[in-house]
Amino acid sequence: MKFNCFKDPDPESGPPVSRTGCIFCDVTRDKGFDVVYEDTELVAFRDRWPRAAGHLLVIPRMHIGTVSDLRAEHAGLVTRMKERGIALAPGATKLGFHIPPFSSVHHLHLHVFTPPFTALGRVMYPVHSRGQGKGWSWFVSADQAIAILQNGHRIRLGASKP
Ligand SMILES: [Zn+2]
Ligand SMILES: [Zn+2]
Fold this sequence. Notes:
The protein has 3 helices and 8 strands, in the order E-E-E-H-E-E-H-E-E-E-H. The protein is an alpha+beta fold. The protein has a single domain, classed as HIT-like (HIT family, subunit A, 2-Layer Sandwich), CATH 3.30.428.10. The protein is globular and about 45 Å long.
């Protein structure tokens, strides 16, 4: 089983897949996931295809599609995901999300990277800024995502509204 976000992009940016068949709705050690943390709201595990010395994914237990499905009310959840990532990986330098169609698993997952990055890891997660917001990129940092949601906007490939 693989869930690499970049190698196997979903060509469709349509509605998120149903719970049925969503591998991230059932993240347990029994299923082979390297779970490093879990509570009632969040689960964290090591990415099977690490692109950095440390590469964790933090996900909500509840099925939420992708960052494109997030609304203002999710800003708190994203903040808790970010804080959990930092707590688990104090040396992390980059935390963020792929934006459809560049996310192969349509269950919200925060990437948490602790350097050094692999060669691929250096190019797969570009964070671009424009002014206070997000520039054009298929990857959005957790801080950018939180700011966009708090401003009442949706997260897209393009630059965020100021
Ligand atoms: Zn991803
Ligand atoms: Zn799911």
